Every structure is written in C-alpha cells, then in structure tokens.
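Why run this: before we spend reagent on co-expression, it is cheaper to look at a predicted model of the complex and decide which construct boundaries make sense. The entries below are exactly what would go into the expression plan.
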Amino acid sequence: MKKTESIPTVTEGTKSVPQPASQWRRILSFRNISALYIFIAIFAIFAILTPKTFLSPGTWVLLLDEQTITVLAALAVLIPLNVAVFNLAIGAEVGFAVILVAVLQVNVQLPWPLAVVLALACGALIGTISGLIITRLKIDSFIATLGMSSLLTAGLVLLSGQRQVLGLGEGFRDFATGGIPLGGTFKITWPVIIMLAVAFVLWYVMEKTPLGRRMYAAGFNPDGARLSGVNVSRLQIGSLVAGGMVAALAGTLLASRINAGDPTVGPNLLLPALTAVFLGSTQFKGGRFNVWGTVVSVYVLAVGVKGLQLLGATDWVENAFNGLALLGAVALSRWERTSKRTAAIKRATTFGRKARAELAEQQAADDPDRAPKA
Amino acid sequence: MAASNEPLLRVTGMVKEFPGLRALDDVSLEVGAGEIVAVVGHNGSGKSTLVKILAGVYTKDAGEVEFPASTPQEQTELHIIHQDLGLAVQLNAIENLGIPKYRGLRESLSPSPVKREKEKARALISRFGEPFDVTVPVGTLSPAQRSIIAIARALDGWQHPRNILILDEPTEALHASEVRVLFEAVKKLAAEGAGIIFISHRLDEVLELADRIVVLRDGKKVADDARSTIDHERLVELVTGVEAGEAETGRTDRTHGEVVLDVAGLWGEVLDGIDLTIHAGEVVGVAGVLGSGREALPAMVFGELLAAADEFTLSGEPYERRRPGESIRRGMAFVPGDRAKYGSIRDFTARENMTLPSMQAVTNAAFSVNVRQEKALAQELIAKYDVKPARPEQIFKQFSGGNQQKIVFAKWLRNKPQVLLLEEPTQGVDIGAKQALYEAIDDAAAQGAAVLVCSSEAKELVRLCDRVLVLRDGRVAADLHGEDLTETRLVLEGYGLAEGHHGESEGEQ
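The model came back. Tokens follow.
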C-alpha cells in the first residue's frame, strides 16, 4: 500500500550509466512503438483471414507506391506543425499543384520538367504568403491556412474549369510510374524513392541539426524560444515554404500517376495527412511530432484499410478505420502517460486521509474539548 | 443578534510550509465587526499565502480559522476580492454582478427583463457613491469602477452586514482620486458592521485607512497594533525589519572597468526616458513598485519589448534595431522573471535547454549537433552550478524551482555574456539555491560582465548591487549607492515617501 514509485536519486557524483536492459524495454514498450505492434497484429489477422491476396508481393509493392502521396502530404503538414503552425491548406495545396502542373503542360505547352519546377516554386510562394499572413498580420495559423485553402480551391476551379485537364506532356507519366526494376513485374517506383529521400532529409534536419532543435523549441514555447535567440517568425515562414514545396511535389506526382489534372483528388488528402501526423506523434519520440512516426503511421493505416478491403468491406471502411485508429492510439498514449501518476496521487490522498483521521483520533484522546466536531 | 463583542474572524496559530520555505509561521489574527484591519508586508512576507488559505486555495498545515460571532441565524460569511478582481471584461456590469440568474430552460430562453436588471445593478452600485453606466463592457470602465463592481458583487446576497470582506491589493491599479472612491466605499461598509481585511504594501494607504495594522515579515507576525500607536517611520521599520541607521548598505567592493552598456532616454510602453550606464564588473539594480516600469526595463534593453532610445551603445558600438537573437550575438543574456513561460522550453531536457541560445560550439561539420559533446557540456554545467538531480536528460519541468533557475543561469552564463540582464532572479527559489544564484551573479560580475538586476526584493538588491535605480511612474526617481543604498531607502523611494518627496508624492497620487 505504501509502496510508491521511488525516484532514483543520483546522489553520488558518478555519472548515471543508462542501463541497457531498461533502455531496450523503454524503446520496445507499447507506448513507444504502439503502431508497430498494431501493424504486426493487423498483419497476423489478415494473413490468416485472406492469405492468398494479402500475402502476395504485388499487394505490398502496390501499397508502398500508392501511399507515397499521402506520406508526402503528411510530411508537408508535419514541417510547419513542428513550429506550432497548423497547415489546413494542405489538401488545396496538393490539388492546386495537380492542376497547375497539368495546365502548364497542356495550355502553356511547357515541357514537363519545367512545369514541375514551376509548380514547386508556386508551392514555395504559397507557403511564403501563408507565412507572412501568420507572422506579420498575426493571424492564427488555423484561420490563415483555412482562408488560404479557400483561395487555392477557388484558383483550382478557375484554372481547371471543374474539368479534368487531359493530354499531358510526353514522358510525364514516367515520373510517377517509372522506377528501378526489381525483377519480374515489380519495381521500386520514383515516388517511393523521392518520398524516402524527402523523409530522410527532413529527419536529419529535424532530429540532428541545430535548426531542428530550434524548430522544436519554437513549437513547444514560441516566447521562450524567441528569448533564447530563435527567430521564430523566420522558422514559421521557412517551414511553410518547405511544406508548400513538399505539398507541390506530392501534387505533381499525383498528376503524373493519374495522368491528368483532376480537380477533385487533392482536397481529399487533408484528413489522412493530419491523422498520420497526430498518430505519428505518439510513436518513437513520446509526444513530439516526428518524421518516421508519421511515415510508419501512414502505412499502418493503409495496411489496415487494405486488409479490410480485401475482406470485402466497402468505401466507408477507410474513414472508419482511420478515425478509430487515431482516437485509439492517442487515447492509449495519453492514458499510459497519466495512469501511473493518477494512481500515485490516489494512493497519496488515501494515505493522507488516513493520516488525518488518525491525527484527529489522537487529538480527541489527548484533549476531548478541542477535537473537531465533525 | 450575536454578542457584538465577539470578533467576526479569529485566526490562531496559522502555519503553512512550502518546500524549503515557511511561508506562514504561527500567525494569529482577529477582526471585529466594523473594524478595518490592514495586513502589510513585503513580497514574500506571507500576505498572499494568508489570503489563499482563507480563500481555500491552499490548505493550512496547522492553525485554526474560526468565526466566533457566527450563529445559525446569522452566519458570518467571508468574501474575498482578489487583486485581479475576476471580472469578465467583455461583459457589462449587470452581467458581472450576476444579476441575470436564469433557472431552467424556460427562463433561459425567454427575453431577459433588461429594465429591472438595470435598476437592480444601479441600486447595488449606488451604495458606493456615484452611479455609472451599467450597460457598457466593464473593460471600458475605470479601474475604480471595476473595483466597485467587484465589491458590489461580493456584497450581493449578504443576508446581514456583519460579514468579512478581504481586499487583496485593491489599489494596485488605481489613481489617487479613485483610491478615495474605493476607500469611501470600504469605510461605509465598515460603518455598517462589516469586518474588513485590507492587504496592501502601500504604506501610506494603510495608514490612512486602517484601524489596526498587522505587519508580516518572513511569514511571522511582527506587529499587531492600533493605527494610533504607529507612525510612518515605525511602520517602515516593522516592514523592512531594519532599524533606521543600522542597516546593511550596498556593495562597494567591486572594481569596475569600461562602460559596457550606455543607454540614454530609453522610452517605451511604461518607461519615460531612462538613462542607464553599466560598467564592466558592475551590478546595477532596478527597484520600484509594480507598474513603475521595473519589469519592462530588461526586456526593452534586450529587444523583446519595443522601445526607442536616444542613444544605445553596447561595448562602444551603437545598437539600434534590437532583437533577442541579435542581442545574444552581441553578448547579452536575459534571464526573464517567468522561467516556465519565457526562460525555458519546459518540455526540453536540461541539456537541450542549456545549449539552445548558441549551438555553434556543439555543431559538427555535417551541420548536426554532436550529442556526445553536448552531453559532456551539460554534465559540466550541471556540476558547476550544482543542479540536482544531476541528470542532463531529465525534462526541465521535472526539476524543482531552484534547480530550474540554476539551469537557466547555466544556459546563459556558459557563453560568458558581456551584459547580463536579470529579472527577479530568485523568484520562487529556496534559500539554498538563492545563495548559489547570488554567488553565480557575483562570479559573472567578477569576470567582467555588466549586470542589471530587476527585483522586487529590497534585501536582494542591497545584497547584490553596487548601485540601484529606483523607478517610479516610468522615470528614475532615485539613484542610490554606497551608504544611501539601504532597504529602508529603497522602500521609501519606491513609494515616493522619502524625505523631501513626501508632500509632492501625495499631491501627485
């Protein structure tokens, strides 16, 4: 009953040597990598239920390729979110790039590489404008990017006329469908390679460099970071620019894959991207938004959805699964973090109540007049 | 009617301990009907702890609170008006007075009887003098009018006048004429039989209003006397605990170098033309009551708050467009008063906090942070400033207040700043850590830093400083050093009560 969590005190001057065993336990704990455990569980369940289709390599190669756009969109949300800036315009940004890269090729007759570069530049420009709105006009990022999203959607409709833009340039289709052959009909597609490269660069910048440290600082406490010499506004603008470019990259890849400028595909990415980022924040880094958590989350969600689809579930299952997984994972990590403390406090208060009661009894015995009447 | 000679409130032997600090030590207090009792004392004397215990914010460790005059027919109630009043500034007086009390769905949805509510609000307020517009948002009213709304709200629902009203620093935001309005209201209440506890550190107001004065110092009650037996000088002695004439004086043992920071005519939101010169190795203090501009000065020098200056030179070079990042590059360091909000990243580890302001030293050729080197540095700093527990990987918010502040100090002193700006450097810090922090400041000065210390603790300023500027209403009211730099003088100058200023300041307030 009285046993409480003892806080290890380092009284002697020796350096506290981290014990490898406990470190591994922490790293492999459910709280730290719940998504991977969920992944294993999903994998096992579907491998048993639909072994033929679920375990075929074709499914997996396809899945890997299919989700790259979502991963890129999620990373585009993650970058500004790390400096406490919400980017709700992500779907519109991707959609705008889809249309822009198509229109530049079809209506302006530009060669496709130039169109891609211009689309990326436009993504950067959109990010700059959002950043300036947020930092200079001091408009909350939620509202600013929501407004931006509306404007981009309007631009998207204006450019496309609500119709698919068809007849894209020669070779553009290879941008998303080509890749390094693995033998047979399988290949690692360019989008997969691009996605991994982007993720790697972001991971390096965020986790390894002083820039990344400053980004996290600005995300946790903008005022404190500024007083420590971090130029928070510049980081916010910069992160939106980087995010805008990644979003535009996702848009061009998406246009290439469907081989058309489709005005409807981009906006659907907002919710999956946000879901993955928040789910990812519960992984690996204990509450910090992070790159690999986000990447893994996208794939865990996709595998779950894919398995259910193979079982014959219909359209509604994707959203239902994503929603449940997000709520479940975040609730679990929250619960695990607070349950220990709650238990300790409960113990302490019951103990305290008992002590008070004993004290009162003692007082009553010592001095009957002064005992509390209650 | 209860026996009228019984006091309304009796506090006996109140004790409250915080880790490393006895905030209240055997404090007893009585308030009778119709009596105005002032509780005075410095910051940290235990005034606010007392109020918070009475309010139920803190639980007492020992002692009793009784209402001897309370009977089943006439229960004594206790109402507290906190310093920030707790009004909703966007709502009008009627709403703030809580007059619209709707019960159930039908009443909530039917149109409100505006006229009746307005009259009721007027009636409540007019007890305290001139009525005012009750339909405008209270944020647009004057501070005194807001105080009156708060009092009226506390009084609304009193079944009888013989209750306790506690006013915690009610005059902080008021002008002199408004203080009169408030005092009239309070006196009227007392005349009706209420017991008033008036918490303040403005000694002249206390002397004007109170019937009896209770002085707290370091958690102990040092005086509980009738107003008529205490004069101004005696009250200052009681509050500061220093007999006139035998006080500790400012530091004179330091050797100063070149001028490092030279500011002329610094002007900003609350400052109105401040001149400030600090030499290498010199520690200059800034004193003044809340609102005097004391708390804004370091942030303005650092470039966090917008301020203009006629002249601003740092190490002989003009420095015009001040920004925190640029200030750090030029060798400034700023320890803000609120460490959780401004002084640190609470969710970072101690190590990450310590290296944040300048990471060049721990960055390698591949633009990445060399974590091993960083850890070694953090370990070294932790040993040097005796942070406990000595774990660089512990999250900042899990350290105790004193150790958090040590980490903040380590973070800035690591770079050997030329100018060290400190705001309330030992706020919420236990005695042991306080001493360590003082030594760190002495050490920084000895190594040639120009140090600016803003503090509300007179004792601390006398302990640390060669010279202290006392601010009042955004201007330098006094520049004390050597013999003149005593706790008593600091307090007197801060309130504008020093000899020669007395009449002037009364007229001004």
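Chain A touches chain B at residues 9-10, 13, 15-16, 204, 208-211, 213-214, 216-217, 220-221, 223-231, 287 (CB under 8 Å). The domain at 29-336 of chain A is CATH 1.10.3470 (ABC transporter involved in vitamin B12 uptake, BtuC). Bring this page to Monday's planning discussion.
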